Amino acid sequence: MPTTITFFPVDNGDMTLIKFGDAASTTLLIDVNIRQDADDPDGDARDVAKDLRDRLKKDENGRPYVDAFLLSHPDQDHCRGLARHFHLGPLAEYPDDKRDYKDKKIVIREIWSSPIVFRRASKTHTLCDDAKAFNTEARRRVQANRDKGFAVRDGDRIQIMGEDIDGKTDDLAPILRKVDEAFNEINGTASSFFTARLLAPIDATDDEELEESLAKNQSSVILNFTLAADAQTPDGAKFLTGGDAEVFIWNRLWQRHEHESAVLEYDIMQSPHHCSWHSLSYDSWSELGEEAEIDHGARSALSQTRDGAVVVASCKPIADDDSDPPCIRAKREYQSIVDVAKGAFYCTGEYPKADAVEPLVFTVTAQGVQPPSKKEAGVKAAAVVSSARTPMPHGTR
C-alpha cells in the first residue's frame, strides 16, 4: 500500500493521519479534534472518530491503535476528545477488551510531545482537561523510560520534541529529538519510509521578551516530513505541518533558514492555525481589512513550494468576511503561493462540499502526490499534482 495523508474535517481544528507505505502500515496521528457533536448520531458533525477507526489496524488483542500520536500544542481544538477516545495509562490497565470494537479506546503505542510547548502554552491560557490528561500521560511515559533505562514497550514509548529549560531533558538523549535534526524512528523502530526534520519549537532562551513572543505566537511543534512512496522512492513527497504557529515564529524560521531554504520546501503543507491571517501578518484582519500588511519573512517561509504543491486548510468553510480563522485574505495568499507552483488549495470544511464533508486523502506515489478524485464540478481541478523535485525559483516565492 502507498503512503497516504488523510485530513479529517473537524471544523477549526487539526486531525491528520499519516499511514506509511511499509509492510506494517505504520500510522502517525497528528492532533485530534473530536467534538461532542461528532459523537452524537443525531448531530450534524461528521463522525470523524469512526472515520479514524476505519483506517486503523487492530493489535493481537483486538484493540485499535496508532503507532504514534503527535500533539503539536495543547490548545483544545488540537486535543479535544483525547481522553474520551484514546487509552491513557499503562496498557496493563486497558479497560475495554469486553466492549464492542466501536466503543474500544484507541491505544497510543508512542507519544511525540514537547515540554517547552506545554510550558509556553500554560503561560498564556489555562489548559483544557484533555491537554492536562495528555501532559500527565507524557510525564508518566518519561518517568517509565527513566526507570527502565529506556527499554520500554508499546504504551510506554515517547519521543520528546525539542529540549526543555534548565537541563530538564539532558538525561533523555535516547528519546530526545533536537531542533534542526532529522530522525526516522517511530515506536521503537527505524523507518525507511520517512524522515522528519524538527524545525520548532524554537529553543528555550533566557530572553524574557523573546519567550513571551514565542508563547503569544502559539509555539507549536513544526515538522517537515520526507515521505517515501515505496522502497525505491524515498523522496515521494515533503509534508510540512506546524500546528498553530503564528507570524513571529515563521519569520524567525525564515531568518534561520533563508540560505538553506530547502529545509522548508514542501509538496503538501497544512496551513498553520486553520488558515489564520495571524500566521502571515502582525496586523489584525478584522480591524484593518485590506490595509493589513503581510510579513514578508513569514510569507517566504510558507512559500517554499515544490512543483505542484498543495496547501490544505483544516478549518470550517472560508467566507469572504472579517472572520479569522479562517481568513479569506490568508486563503488568497495561499492560493497565490500554490498558483505559482501550479498546485491547488483545499479546505477540509468545503470538501467535497460544505454540507457533505468527507476526509481528504492524498496518496504518495512514485509518480508524485496524487490528490483525491474530483467529486463535483465545484472542486478545483487538480488532476495532476506533480512532485517534480525542482523547487520554484527564489524570485517566485
Number of helices: 10
CATH class: Alpha Beta
> Which value, in Å, is the CA radius of gyration?
20 Å
Question: What percentage of amino acids are in beta strands?
Answer: 15-25%
Whole-number count of domains: 1
Order of strands in the sheet with most strands = 11-10-9-7-3-2-1-21-22
CATH superfamily: Ribonuclease Z/Hydroxyacylglutathione hydrolase-like
CATH hierarchy: architecture? 4-Layer Sandwich
Q: Which structural class best describes the helix and strand composition?
A: alpha/beta
First CA to last CA: what distance? 34 Å
Q: What's the average pLDDT?
A: 92
In brief:
With 397 residues, this protein is an alpha/beta fold. Helices cover 22% and strands 22% of the residues. The chain has helices spanning 48-53, 76-79, 82-85, 115-124, 129-147, 208-216, 247-257, 285-288, 296-301, 328-340, and strands at residues 3-7, 16-19, 27-30, 32-33, 57-58, 64-66, 68-70, 107-108, 110-113, 157-161, 176-177, 182-183, 185-186, 189-190, 194-200, 222-227, 237-241, 266-270, 305-313, 344-347, 360-365, 368-370.
Which helices and strands appear, and what pairs or packs with what?
Elements: E1 3-7, E2 16-19, E3 27-30, E4 32-33, H1 48-53, E5 57-58, E6 64-66, E7 68-70, H2 76-79, H3 82-85, E8 107-108, E9 110-113, H4 115-124, H5 129-147, E10 157-161, E11 176-177, E12 182-183, E13 185-186, E14 189-190, E15 194-200, H6 208-216, E16 222-227, E17 237-241, H7 247-257, E18 266-270, H8 285-288, H9 296-301, E19 305-313, H10 328-340, E20 344-347, E21 360-365, E22 368-370
Parallel strand pairs: 3-7, 6-8, 7-9, 9-10, 10-11, 17-18, 18-19, 19-20
Antiparallel strand pairs: 1-2, 1-21, 2-3, 5-6, 12-15, 13-14, 15-16, 16-17, 21-22
Helix pairs in contact: 4-6
